[in-house]
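Practice problem: predict the structure.
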Amino acid sequence: MILLVVAAAIINPHNEILLAQRPKGKRLAGKWEFPGGKVEADESPEAALIRELHEELGIVVGVDALEPFWFLSHDYATEFGFHLLMPVYLCRKWQGTPEAKEHAALCWRHASEMHALDMIEADEALVERLK
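Answer:
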């Protein structure tokens, strides 16, 4: 099965990127990831990301603030029974202050500092790409 999800590298004026820690009770709990989520059947990737960022972080993002950056393909078939496809966008403009509404914690890090965090496996290639 292919699972389509979307993620954002939200970048502040200090060139730090927002990361979110997965909460207890979810797969890969305690690991750090880029905010985003599943694309529903009736959504474009951009619409899904705008919805997810509002639900997860309480921020408002316009489609014009999303810059296509890269996509990930990662095999989780053995572990979870799916193959992950993830378009990734850069986002430098939003309204509101990010809050951990669905995550255990949030943090801002420069790409060169992310290796010190316990990132989810699928995001490791993205960290390298952002450097």
